[in-house]
Amino acid sequence: MYDAEKNTPKSELQNRIDRLQTQLREKSIDGALILQNADAFYFAGTIQQGQLYVPAQGPPLLMIRKSLDRARAESALDRVTPMKSPRQLPELLAGHDLPVPKTLGMELDVLPANLYLSFGKILDRTRIVDISHEIRLIRAVKSEYEIDRLRTAARFSDRLIEAAAGMIREGMTELELAGLVEAEARKMGHQGVVRMRLWGSEVFYGHLMAGPRAALPSFLASPTGGLGAGPAVAQGASFAPIRKGEPILVDYTFCYEGYISDCTRIFAVGGLPERLGKAYMAMLDVEGIVKRTARAGVSAGEVYRAAVERAGELGYGDRFMGAGPDRIRLVGHGVGLELDEYPFLAKGQEMVLESGMTIAVEPKLILPGEGVVGIENTHVVRDDGLETLTRSPDRITVV
Asked: In this structure, are residues 139 and 336 in contact, taking their beta carbons and an 8 Å threshold?
């Protein structure tokens, strides 16, 4: 029943475990307990309910409450055992010749406080420390296995952008168009779930909106917001109709076997006014600066600085990546199993880009009262620059 060809290969999991164990030993941490879904999938190849214990040395132990059979079918790890309750943790460790750790790494950036307190009682002689930064650094550099999945996701992004052009009609609502595009994505195999790590952040496929509504800010750490269907969502597509001559922003993910491609293109019914076309071309210029600057060995903050300087030179500094106090100090972000991975091409970021990191670069102008123009593509960082994965035409598509 389960498609074993979709499982993460054992060699891939072992490489990831080895990298984590190296970090544990360097930081004198006895083991790591992985609970979050994206991290669990990365290290174990399954998101079934349970816990993954990775000792500083030796094979990991995957303990599953539900569903054990599915976890065994999906994960290539050797030790997969049933667990009735988290309180069994010391007992299960002992049963597999693993001592209770004196120092335990956990994902404290995402772990709910009540779970943290619970594990503090279960392991009352263990010091719990944060291992989330190290995990995110490991995940930031993709293997060729991962890049292959990202490359496939990007091809689907390109196909989705092409399909969207044939769906746009003047007078249809943003939500109607979004429904058609999202249905097409599902037909292509989009997994439907778009994971984000930052607490309180959520997105459904992405942002699709038109005209002045696209320039409305929202709570999300994104240059675009949108009116949305109401205050309970406060972002994305709304019930407003699409009008002739306004920019239509299609900023959508495509998620393939867990991995996320992020792509933005601009459409318009009947074309755009000259000033908006000029603004769009400026963002292509900024994207070019980023592509010429970003490479292994360059800091993320340096790439951001180059983009901001160019936007200012072109006369758009006050509307680049937002307007007024709602501007965000970012021009790109890592993508992988989550939409907000390391690295962040943002102000003050000292993280150095490494070959194999995957980033979505998204220079955009927010024009209050008019809309949003810009572009976004997913790239792989290489020693000599960026390998672009999303390759649909970067022109404004007039329908």
From this structure: yes
Q: How far is CA 231 from CA 28, 235, 313, in A?
A: 47, 8, 37
Are 49 and 122 a contacting pair, CB within 8 Å? no
Entry pTM: 0.95
Q: Locate 256 and state its tokens.
A: 């393939």
Is the same domain home to 122 and 152? no
Q: Which residues contact 387 (CB under 8 A, 6 or more apart)?
A: 379, 380
260 and 184 within one domain: yes
Alpha helices in 85-210 (DSSP H): 89-95, 113-122, 132-140, 144-165, 174-188
CB 98 within 8 A of CB 53: yes
- What's the rounded Cα separation, in Å, for the pair 83 and 224? 43
Over range 354-372, report the average pLDDT. Answer: 97
How many angstroms separate the Cα of 124 from the Cα of each of 32, 68, 89, 127?
16, 28, 12, 8
Residue 1, pLDDT > 80, answer: no
Last residue of a domain, one of 118, 139, 160: 139
* pLDDT on residue 322: 95
Rounded to a whole number of angstroms, the CA Rg of the chain reads 22
User: Within a 13 Å sphere around the CA of 293, how many CA atoms are in the beta-carbon half?
Assistant: 23
Residues 102 and 151 in one domain: no
Distance of CA 356 to the CA centre of its chain: 15
Q: How far is CA 203 from the centre of its chain?
A: 11
Residues 6+ apart with CB under 8 A from 238: 173, 174, 175, 209, 213, 226, 227, 228, 229
pLDDT in tens, 186-207: 999 999 999 999 999 999 999 9
Asked if 320 and 285 count as a contact pair (C-beta separation under 8 A), the reply is no
